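Section 3.1 - Work completed
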Amino acid sequence: MAHCLLKRPDLDILATMPNPLIALLVGIALLAILAILFWPDRGLYIRWQQARRMSARVLREDALKYLYTNELEGRPVTLQSLAGEMGISLNQAAQLLAEMTRLGLVESHDDAYDLTDTGREVALQVLRAHRLWERFLSERSGYSEEEWHARADEAEHFLEPEEVEALAESLGNPRFDPHGDPIPTAAGETPTIQSKPLTQLGPGDLARIVHLEDQPELVYAQLVAEGLHPGMEVLVIEKTPQRVRFISRGDEHVLAPVLAANVFVIPVPKEQAKTAIKPLGDPLSSLKPGEEAEIVAVSRTMHPAERHRLLDLGVLPGAKVRVEFSSPLGEPVAYLIRGALIALRDDQAKKIFVRRLSPRSGNGRKKVGRALVEGAADQVISHQ
């Protein structure tokens, strides 16, 4: 009888059925995998699609910016030049241009490509977001000056129009970015400045820096290290195929032509020569304990966020300052300014210029001799 029961067909079927608990767990696992992949707005597939679309948008907007900057400089954009600039293959560049043509952003003329009105409008809005974000980084962040451009390159594609306008308003609707580039308005208007590279000046020419080109990054980093900034007035005293030498506020600077070509200037009346190259003063760091001075300027080369903080603390032109004491390691040093003690590092104190009110002592600042400064200015004025 037992042998017959084991051979019953219904028991054979039961024996081959999966364990209900295991089947339930497998089903739950499959549902979980499907949810992870296809959950609305959060699923991996949706995110992959969004990233793919974002990548295409970034590529398209970068291409539009490139077309716009070349348009301003009167240079044609070809398939080959776009591929080289974007770091993509010719096939990818051709697909990109075909897509932008289909969207009405560019049009072709004799193997070159130009922006349409719609394409120019999009390029200007991306450029506006980029330059406003650079201004934000310069004034409100702790990032170094060399980082601003790369970080703005990333942020410009993610800022929505309403966020861009809110950013502009919070910054006071600035007209220029920290490098001196004009910021397009919300209406797409861009002020133009008729500047020229420093390499086009000759000995005796006086000019004001209005823009430092931030690409390539290595060149820009060297200009920043040299202490150059928009608003700085320069008097060229020597120009050769190997170097451009100039004076600014009593300091001598020497640049190789490849660096000087990224410094853009506008002419300044030569009557201003003596004022332009007159030293700002002695660095605050050159004062000894007990010495007193009057602040005459805070260098523009100081990080803007740090500069604003010091100005808020009363480190202003005209304020009296006295060196109180230094820490055992030499820095920071405590300065009495407007009745308050302010501790400053040496690199900060070097960028605050003062006029001594107590006997002058020597300092290590590299300066052009007074006779050379005054002689150069007199030479400029005499050649008017």
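Second construct:
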Amino acid sequence: MFASGEEFLYLECSSCGSIQIKDVPDNLSSYYSGSQYYSFVPLVRSGSLASLLKKIRLTLFLKLKLSKFAPEVYGYWLQKVCTKLDASIADVGCGNGQLLYEMHAGGFKKLVGFDPFLPAGVSIADGIELKSTDLASSQEKFDLIMYHHAFEHLVDPEQELITCYDKLNPKGRLLLRLPVADAQVWKDKRELWVQLDAPRHLGIPSVSGLKHLAGKCGFEVEEVEFDSTEFQFWGTELYEAGLPLDLRHRERFSDLQILEFKQKALRYNQEGKGDQICMYLQRKD
């Protein structure tokens, strides 16, 4: 990401194809520098009019089921996991809390973020608390727990799933969004794959490996949806060129190239070989 030139050894499971870093760096927190790492950029707040429009849009989406009103940030999976505005929701690995802030602007009322890399806990709006701890430290129970590209950062994913089971209310749901080792771009480009993201991504499972682990920890997999984007291609090409992951370098690609990348990503998703998924799970009771 930062073109530091450091090397990290990863292991690949010969059974399911999942990937795992061999040794977790002792100074792992230094790779989440607030001045560089994207999760900790300043929060973008909405004015009163924008917040009102977001609430109207979410109400129309939930009440009338009109897809054109789906909130851009979270709408496409929201209707599958949680439609009640008073549901208690936790976002693990919340970063600056932007997603929770958008959900709050849309009308959700009980939102908590967890991120041990935050310098301190903070309340970013009435009804949204960000905690600089992990989920296991919480005494609360939730209707929905979400990991938006955070699960791959965990040292012990099995223990995290056990914690999720314990922290969910009966029939509670778990949403995992993460890169997967089923990716064709991983098979083609190996260590240049942009979502390998060494050393922050400690473990990248295959779909079959994650399904097995989730079942072992008491979850039923309801659906797996590939949702990879053109990022897997242009980001990987930047690494091939020896460039850091800087959005300014995206301008190297023409509009036609980006369109071709988008079409290729859609095809890969349909074929089950995109580089990231949404996995919808429910606690067995």
